[in-house]
Amino acid sequence: LLAFQVNGLAEFKVVYFEEDLIVNAPIEEWPLCEVLIAFFSTGFPLAKARAYVKLRKPFVFNDLDKQEWLFDRRIVYTMLAQQGVPVPKHVILNADEENTIDEQEDYLEVNGVRINKPLVEKPVSGEDHNVYLYYPRSQGGGQKRLFRKVKDRSSQFYPDIHTTRIHDGNSYIYEEMLDTDGTDVKVYAVGQSYAHAEARKSPAVDGKVCRDEKGAERRISVCLDEKEQRIASIVVETFGQTVCGFDLLRANGRSYVCDVNGWSFVKDSKKFWSDSANLLRRLALQALAPDHLQAHPGCVCAEGVTPPPQALKLLCFGCDANDGPQVSDVDGCGSSAQASRKRGKNGSSTEVTGEATQQPVRRRVECWNDHEPRSHAHGSAPRRGMVLSSALGAL
Questions:
Q1: Of 88, 209, 268, 285, whose Cβ has the fewest other Cβ atoms within 10 Å?
Q2: CB 224 within 8 A of CB 232
Q3: Using the 8-state DSSP alphabet, how is residue 143 labeled?
Q4: What is the rounded distance in angstroms from the CA atom of residue 309 to the CA atom of residue 374?
């Protein structure tokens, strides 16, 4: 945002709120701003930030009230289902209610709803990442515990544990484990018409994290089909999060949302950063200075000239990879390249070989890249706090 200029004048000034100011100073002493970027991370006073928005009424990219919804997986699934977004078959156990429970070797039944094993057990808190998997005796039984990456591990299997945590006094969501061919998809949306997606090896496979030569988790850049594009748009609109990451599971010819993370960014992708900056600029100016935006749909920035609004359509829902096939169209995504992979309609992947070509092809192309998400849930923001941007300069 700092790079955008008109007639040599910057369009935006960005002000970072330091942690001491956010935590200790009253909101009346916080600087004024016209556009606010704020998102939760551990220790962030979200209620205080909401009070600031109520007092100063800036344009907000990520709705702070609706960020509360993301703390409760029950609310997330309810909101998704109400909007017609597919979610895995599941049942909710509320520990503060009376429940009828029947757990057997091959299934778990809660209040008359049966979930066959293998199943997924999730704490209802979106901040609790102790997600466990349970397998039926017919597959040998056992429990697999998923956790945030520790060196090269993301899960651990316990062959002698067969019963869930259903009686430990906490609330859980129990859902069917979908057959995703060992992958899951991380989606990073910016607004309702743009999303970047990457597939990775699921931690449920063997718990070993595949890393590239830079040490980053290995990902495959994938394209979203029309239904998945619509899902991305619905997620952004429903939860009021202009910049929003969520998880997709592709199984049985369908795509299911299994988690919504809120503010998430792709690491080490200059294209994603550039696209995001262009989109956030447009959204801010549409709200604050529509006449200026109309006069300057694309303006000079450090990298050159930003694309006009109609050109941004070509960036929507595209693949991006530093090493591999580059996408040249939105409808089918793609150009071919050596050792790329194509996903068929049934969700399976097949190898596609051939020399790299600049000719667009009407098929979905996936390719390895070095991207890794930067998510509030991982506490990886460069500093904890708010980023306040004000439209200044040429405006």
A1: 268
A2: yes
A3: E
A4: 27
Contact between residue 316 and residue 193 where contact means Cβ atoms under 8 Å apart: yes
Token output for 247: 């998880």
List of residues 6+ apart from 155 with CB closer than 8 A = 144, 145, 146, 147, 203, 204, 206, 207
Secondary structure letter of residue 177 according to DSSP: P
- In sequence order, the β-bridge partners of residue 133 are 120, 144
pLDDT in tens, the chain (395 residues): 888 988 888 999 999 888 999 999 999 999 999 999 998 888 889 999 999 999 999 999 999 999 999 999 999 999 999 999 999 999 999 999 999 999 999 999 999 999 999 999 999 999 999 999 999 999 999 999 998 777 888 889 999 999 999 999 999 999 999 999 989 999 999 999 999 999 988 888 877 778 777 777 788 889 999 999 999 999 999 999 999 999 999 999 999 999 999 999 888 788 899 999 999 999 999 999 999 999 998 765 555 555 554 433 333 343 443 333 333 222 233 222 222 333 333 333 333 223 323 333 222 222 222 333 323 233 333 333 444 444 433 33
Instruction: Tell which residue, 373, 341, 365, has the closest CA to residue 266.
Output: 373
